[in-house]
User: What shape does this take?
Amino acid sequence: MATKFRGMGVSQRDVRIRLIDCFVNAVYVYDDGKYVVTLNYKDGAETVKSEEIAEAFGSTTDTVAPHLNP
Assistant: This one.
């Protein structure tokens, strides 16, 4: 499934929307500012916590990809 996105530029808004529609199952945002993202995965869904995302990127997610804002 992921091969259909090869060669597509993520600078295009419609491509970003298609990626999110394909890979993101749900996003839960809590009052304390924490969130959980559930991704579509090959054998179901995989949950990723905000702390895991920050650890993986060495940063908070608000500074990871600011250029993706429309």
In short: The CA atoms of residues 13 and 70 lie 7 Å apart.
